[in-house]
């Protein structure tokens, strides 16, 4: 079953249309890269997938269910977490508090979620997420496992999140998203503004995250970095998908044309 | 010696102003909402306590426990059904809505209870006093100040030591990103206003038992609350207590010099602090 899928996805900011009929899909266990230049629509796609931008219900499917109309908190509780562009840590929270808050609400205060979870347990079926597992921390990602992935965060756990270096802040942002034990992790421009050595460390964590059971969508401007980690690639330009395929099947000329709109 | 007594009375009066201001500070700190109906909500709370005392024969301190859940629900509903719709990039709609709410509350109270001033009797507590060395302090002012400290301690604990407090701070920092963490900002705001209304009810108890009140005095309480919040530093709860104390001491010192200067002295102290420290005494870091 396809994990996440968009069908003719459109997105608007007022009168401005940012996405024009975007079709992508993410299979279980995959890492999909979305590449494109500035203004290609990558972040709009991420904002749509997480519910920040509202869409028609059927334009986004999560395990065959329509979720395009759901708000961000409900999307997150379905197991879709995002590392937002620019990290966006909470300045008034310490590193550890930033991490904790990533997981503390997945349990869902919604009565509907709780009833759904009880019914799922009674009927022996599994719902879109295991509320109890999140509550008792029995998911793979806990403070300990996040600190094991990024040891420097443990040393600085009582520091305000925004007092860290850019690379360390990116680690916090990734750890914060992992704390909800997502099935799908969306990473928006995680290398933006970071030194090459830091980018290497950040990208070294992605296979470990994938091994924990998460499927990934990685949005990148850095083509070579994206091709290295991706099972499949989509290239965007001006709000449309201009190229898709496996990295091994796509030539540099194809990418150049799809990325810039002209052959090299 | 009389000056020490005056200053002590001012500090204790500051506790009342801090109670007026704490709910306002909480709401402003979390959602940047300036609630112009805050003073009227305090007066509404005083009338609710008066109603419970006269109808059920409860002691005011028991009546406040009955009033609190009602005010909590009122705050939650008010935020959820009315104020959340006005919140956004533009600060004008919430100002207009709460200004309108202030007028509605004043008129509704006047219609229901008349314009006559009222008072909630606290019995023997009203005149009870204790000697603190050279100074004699009333039990009610001491209770007021003690309540203010307990309220600030409780709000600080809630804000900085609990999961709800983390959600409050995260939503205050960035509501969109908080949504990505599974937080519903509209519910966080509703809960914050509901909690602020609990504080409002405590303030209402002391307003009603320590002075006369009528439907029109809400805006003046709002001004004291504003001044305490701004003197203390926007969003700082301990700062709010300090702000209340500055106004209280200024008022009692002003009154000691000339009784006509009491209210004026509080406002002058506010202006002086604004001139020296425009962001207040203990501003919360952005």
TrEMBL record, chain A:
- Signal peptide position in this chain? none
Q: Which SMART domains match?
A: AAA
Q: Which domain of life is it from?
A: Bacteria
Which residue range or ranges hold the ABC transporter domain? Answer: 4-263
Q: Which GO terms describe its molecular function?
A: ATP binding
Coiled-coil blocks: none
Keywords, ordered alphabetically = Amino-acid transport, ATP-binding, Nucleotide-binding, Transport
The UniProt record lists the keyword ATP-binding: yes
UniProt similarity note: Belongs to the ABC transporter superfamily.
Record's protein name: ABC transporter ATP-binding protein
From TrEMBL, chain B:
Q: What is its main location?
A: membrane
Against InterPro entries, the record matches this protein to: ABC_transp_permease (IPR001851), BCAA_transport_permease (IPR052157)
Query: Has UniProt tagged this entry with the keyword Membrane?
Result: yes
Family indicated by similarity? Belongs to the binding-protein-dependent transport system permease family. LivHM subfamily.
Entry's localization field: Cell membrane
Q: Does the keyword S-adenosyl-L-methionine apply?
A: no
Q: State the name under which the record lists this protein.
A: Branched-chain amino acid ABC transporter permease
Membrane-crossing residues?
6-29, 36-55, 139-159, 188-208, 228-249, 261-278
Bilayer topology annotation: Multi-pass membrane protein
**Pfam (any one):** BPD_transp_2
Q: Which UniProt keywords apply?
A: Amino-acid transport, Cell membrane, Membrane, Transmembrane, Transmembrane helix, Transport
